[in-house]
């Protein structure tokens, strides 16, 4: 058997083709990944242990009033007079809403007691065709919900009445927005057993201008004033549950698992709630259980929320977050190590410090400085062209170009970057729910995992920008060599 030998010219062509494929293909692949991430529902198997529970559930309440202040982060919620009055009259909470921190899936957890991983509702933003099995509102005959905007969310959970109602309310969103407070006050004051008011102005201001903006602060103030009106109008015997579904980044955005987005302030007061000076941390599925108990509703059998007193006693930190298992971590670690080893061994003739993947490190530093740890709350992670992330990698691409022109092998930078990308893909379940289904094998699902899904999107951009630098160096090298030899011949 003779070894296959390729001429230097053919090797160069092969290398150029491989590098061009990587440089040009990384962003389309990233786009397809992000589309699968946000465009697919699907359950995510996870071990969730919230302890064994034996304590009593919340006693039935004649009326329950649920006010959800969409997008109100815990920091912005801390000083609000009306909200704090509810907390002072009852129990202040920090509520872990689970992951992802997206409004409709979080409300699904509130109304069914099942986490986003159990329901399979992940990035869902459109109305559900039918209320999920066991949804609490569908079990309360006169349940009422009002939404300031985005009525598709309250219309998803089986409320007997959901407004704006196309048959009697204005179709124009601005006209409805103007009427919404008085209808909300009237509903809260009514005899209905369950009234849910979904306030959205804070989330809208967060998306438009960020949580650090004056517009957000103004919306927060307005939402709290509305809460004060609702409280004043509500029946004296009502159980009040006031909460948010997620916070917002200072520059706007939510969806990720970071505590400042995921853990919100909640206040519960009324019959059955002992006023408490301490703040308890619970999970949203625990609150769902309390809500169902107060309404005499039956949650789905796999709802894990604990009875009220048990939930207050044990914060069970992070218990409702999915995380990669030990095997997945081991495979990911191996892939990252293999990529690094391949890169470092690419040219053993030069000194060790020349074999460190400096351009990759520079890309990671650039991204960390400009964007922080990758999060699904950061809008550039979803941007189709990834321009903002790419700009953060530009110095790294220039360094990769320089190192390549100086003679460094392409894999010195690219192999470690590809190793990291492969590791992050494994950690976010991409192989079985995105890559293999793309080849017709297995069931597609969302490649969704706290931290790692956002990391994949970012690492695609890293691979792309390093490949661009390295590819350009590869294309320029023969010209450079020819120019050098010509200069030498001329001298
Ligand atoms: Zn939002």
Describe the structure.
The longest helix has about 40 residues, at about 450-490. Helix 4 packs across helix 10, helix 6 packs parallel to helix 8 and helix 16 packs antiparallel against helix 18. The radius of gyration is 27 Å and the shape is elongated. Strands 4-3-5-1-6-7-2-8 form an 8-stranded mixed beta sheet, with helices on both faces. The protein has 2 domains: about 15-45 and about 325-485, no CATH class; about 65-315, 3-Layer(aba) Sandwich (Alkaline Phosphatase, subunit A). It has about 500 residues and is of the alpha/beta class. The mean pLDDT is about 95. It is built from 18 helices and 8 strands. Bound molecules: zinc ion. Zinc ion binds near residues 103, 207 and 254. InterPro entries: Alkaline_phosphatase_core_sf, Phosphodiest/P_Trfase. Keywords: Membrane, Transmembrane, Transmembrane helix. This is Type I phosphodiesterase / nucleotide pyrophosphatase.
List the helices and strands and how they pair.
Blueprint: H1 8-39, E1 63-69, H2 74-77, H3 81-89, E2 91-96, H4 103-112, H5 116-119, E3 144-147, E4 161-163, H6 173-189, E5 194-199, H7 201-209, H8 214-233, E6 238-243, H9 259-262, E7 263-269, E8 279-283, H10 284-295, H11 308-313, H12 326-344, H13 358-371, H14 387-392, H15 394-405, H16 411-427, H17 430-438, H18 452-490
Parallel strand pairs: 1-5, 1-6, 2-8, 3-4, 3-5
Antiparallel strand pairs: 2-7, 6-7
This protein binds zinc ion.
Residues 71, 103, 203, 207, 254 line the site of zinc ion.
């Amino acid at each position: 058997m003779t070894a296959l030998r390729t001429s230097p010219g053919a090797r160069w062509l092969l290398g150029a083709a491989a590098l061009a494929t990587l440089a040009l293909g990384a962003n389309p692949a990233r786009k397809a990944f992000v589309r699968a991430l946000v465009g697919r529902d699907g359950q995510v198997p996870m071990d969730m242990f919230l302890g064994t529970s034996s304590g009593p559930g919340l006693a039935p309440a004649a009326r329950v009033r649920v006010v959800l202040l969409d997008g109100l982060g815990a920091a912005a919620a801390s000083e609000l007079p009306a909200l704090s009055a509810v907390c002072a009259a009852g129990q202040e909470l920090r509520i872990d809403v689970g992951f992802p921190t997206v409004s409709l899936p979080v409300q699904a957890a509130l109304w069914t007691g099942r986490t986003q991983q159990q329901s399979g509702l992940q990035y869902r933003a459109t109305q559900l065709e039918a209320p999920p099995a066991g949804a609490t509102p569908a079990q309360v005959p006169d349940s009422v919900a009002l939404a300031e905007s985005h009525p598709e969310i309250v219309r998803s959970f089986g409320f007997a009445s959901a407004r704006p109602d196309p048959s009697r309310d204005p179709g124009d969103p601005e006209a409805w927005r103007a009427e919404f407070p008085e209808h909300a006050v009237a509903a809260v004051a009514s005899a209905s057993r369950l009234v849910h008011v979904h306030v959205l102005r804070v989330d809208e201001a967060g998306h438009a201008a960020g949580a650090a903006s004056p517009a957000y602060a103004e919306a927060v103030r307005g939402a709290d004033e509305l809460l004060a009106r609702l409280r004043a109008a509500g029946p004296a015997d009502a159980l009040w549950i006031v909460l948010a579904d997620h916070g917002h980044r200072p520059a706007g955005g939510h969806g990720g698992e970071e505590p400042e987005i995921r853990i919100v302030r909640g206040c519960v007061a009324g019959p059955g709630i002992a006023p408490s000076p301490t703040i308890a941390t619970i999970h949203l599925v625990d609150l769902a259980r309390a809500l169902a108990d107060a309404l005499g509703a039956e949650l789905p059998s796999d709802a894990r929320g604990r009875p009220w007193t048990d939930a207050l006693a044990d914060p069970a930190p992070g218990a409702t977050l999915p995380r990669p298992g030990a095997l997945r971590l081991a495979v990911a670690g191996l892939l990252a190590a293999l990529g690094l080893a391949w890169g470092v061994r690419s040219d053993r003739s030069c000194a060790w410090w020349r074999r460190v993947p400096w351009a990759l490190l520079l890309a990671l530093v650039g991204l960390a400085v400009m964007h922080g740890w990758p999060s699904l709350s950061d809008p550039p992670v979803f941007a189709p062209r990834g321009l903002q992330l790419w700009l953060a990698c530009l110095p790294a691409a220039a360094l990769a170009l320089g190192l390549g022109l100086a003679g460094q092998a392409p894999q010195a930078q690219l192999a470690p970057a590809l190793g990291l990308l492969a590791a992050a893909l494994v950690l976010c379940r991409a192989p079985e729910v995105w890559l293999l289904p793309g080849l017709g094998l297995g069931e597609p699902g969302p490649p969704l995992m706290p931290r790692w899904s956002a990391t994949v999107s970012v690492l695609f951009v890293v691979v792309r920008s390093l490949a661009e630098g390295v590819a350009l160096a590869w294309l320029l090298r023969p010209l450079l060599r020819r120019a050098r030899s010509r200069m030498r011949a001329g001298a």
